[in-house]
């Protein structure tokens, strides 16, 4: 169509989950809509850029210059830390309502295969934070794959204090709610077998 | 999460084809990515807002202050006008490569049921344009529904010159390419029956 249009489509297509058709559709929507539609959208982005930042403690989203709503909540248990890969995981766990401790958001996982090391994820303040909070329990809520595994190992082996014991667990793996053995993939089934527990009538 | 975050998600969710989950995912992607990701995205929007406008002649997208690439192309047949509902339709017809005339983009259809009248679509300069170009043929490439029908009727009955004849057609309706009679809906089949043509061996 024209160069600025193609640039806009490319910028939209770079967003997660958007293909070429969706990006074009959104670009046209923004450009041919009411006069101020594009301006309003741009303004929302500017406000967000100005007012939202990462929580300096845990890496969650927070008001710029402030701790996030979880870290700032005095009723949370500061001695329990749940390590997650990304914000969406934190949101999902919060929605499930089964965690009353704090979080640490890595914004990624270590990947030996893709050369993503500790410096590529949010671990800079991790040891310091564990000390400062007096953490006694760490739950790794990381994915059931090699990268999740590598990340747990790295943290457990190099970033925990040597002078005291911290209970370290990984969330359970197995059949999801409503899951059917017939249709479960082999990784899930292997995990589920390993995670088998005594059954009491 | 926080008010500016919710505002950003709401702005994204207002884009066509994005639900709550996709909007959240994009918001997080923009906010926790490399420092300048959000700023770059905002800049693409600003450039687009500044440099792209509607073509003053046909309503297609164009460089601000210029006619669109179709209207500016001297090799196109100015006396044939194809009326489309939206930019994407123009793009689809251009990609099919079967039209050498100009376009007129309505940015909507008349809808008696939803109270969308002629003043809600791009028809202000239509009669004037038809005169100025000396149009001899108009093809309505509008959808096969009541709104498409109403729009064709309105234009044909009120916006065409009374002092000369203009050939007015509507694109064919029927089975799409590869279409199967068994699975075609009744509107398509009715249209296809009405549009039946002599078959020669």
From TrEMBL, chains A, B:
<feature type="domain" description="Toprim">
    <location>
        <begin position="79"/>
        <end position="174"/>
    </location>
</feature>
<protein>
    <recommendedName>
        <fullName>Recombination protein RecR</fullName>
    </recommendedName>
</protein>
<dbReference type="InterPro" id="IPR023627">
    <property type="entry name" value="Rcmb_RecR"/>
</dbReference>
<keyword id="KW-0234">DNA repair</keyword>
<dbReference type="InterPro" id="IPR000093">
    <property type="entry name" value="DNA_Rcmb_RecR"/>
</dbReference>
<dbReference type="GO" id="GO:0006310">
    <property type="term" value="P:DNA recombination"/>
</dbReference>
<dbReference type="Pfam" id="PF13662">
    <property type="entry name" value="Toprim_4"/>
</dbReference>
<dbReference type="Pfam" id="PF21175">
    <property type="entry name" value="RecR_C"/>
</dbReference>
<dbReference type="GO" id="GO:0008270">
    <property type="term" value="F:zinc ion binding"/>
</dbReference>
<keyword id="KW-0227">DNA damage</keyword>
<keyword id="KW-0862">Zinc</keyword>
<dbReference type="InterPro" id="IPR006171">
    <property type="entry name" value="TOPRIM_dom"/>
</dbReference>
<keyword id="KW-0233">DNA recombination</keyword>
<comment type="function">
    <text>May play a role in DNA repair. It seems to be involved in an RecBC-independent recombinational process of DNA repair. It may act with RecF and RecO.</text>
</comment>
<dbReference type="GO" id="GO:0003677">
    <property type="term" value="F:DNA binding"/>
</dbReference>
<dbReference type="Pfam" id="PF21176">
    <property type="entry name" value="RecR_HhH"/>
</dbReference>
<keyword id="KW-0479">Metal-binding</keyword>
<keyword id="KW-0863">Zinc-finger</keyword>
<dbReference type="GO" id="GO:0006281">
    <property type="term" value="P:DNA repair"/>
</dbReference>
<dbReference type="InterPro" id="IPR034137">
    <property type="entry name" value="TOPRIM_RecR"/>
</dbReference>
<comment type="similarity">
    <text>Belongs to the RecR family.</text>
</comment>
């Amino acid at each position: 169509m024209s160069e600025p249009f193609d640039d806009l489509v490319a910028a939209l297509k770079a967003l997660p989950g958007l293909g070429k058709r969706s990006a074009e559709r959104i670009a046209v929507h923004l450009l041919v809509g009411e006069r101020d539609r594009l301006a309003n959208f741009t303004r929302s982005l500017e406000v967000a850029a100005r007012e939202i930042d990462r929580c300096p403690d845990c890496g969650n989203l927070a008001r710029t210059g402030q701790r996030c709503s979880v870290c700032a909540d005095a009723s949370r248990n500061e001695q329990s830390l749940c390590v997650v890969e990304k914000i969406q995981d934190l949101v999902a766990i919060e929605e499930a309502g089964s965690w009353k401790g704090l979080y640490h958001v890595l914004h990624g996982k270590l990947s030996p295969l893709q050369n993503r090391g500790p410096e590529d994820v949010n671990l800079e303040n991790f040891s310091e934070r564990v000390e400062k909070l007096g953490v006694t329990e760490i739950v790794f809520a990381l994915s059931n794959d090699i990268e999740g595994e590598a990340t747990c190992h790295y943290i457990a082996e190099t970033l925990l204090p040597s002078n005291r014991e911290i209970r370290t667990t990984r969330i359970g793996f197995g059949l999801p709610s409503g899951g059917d053995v017939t249709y479960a993939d082999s990784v899930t089934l292997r995990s589920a077998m390993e995670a088998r527990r005594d059954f009491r009538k």
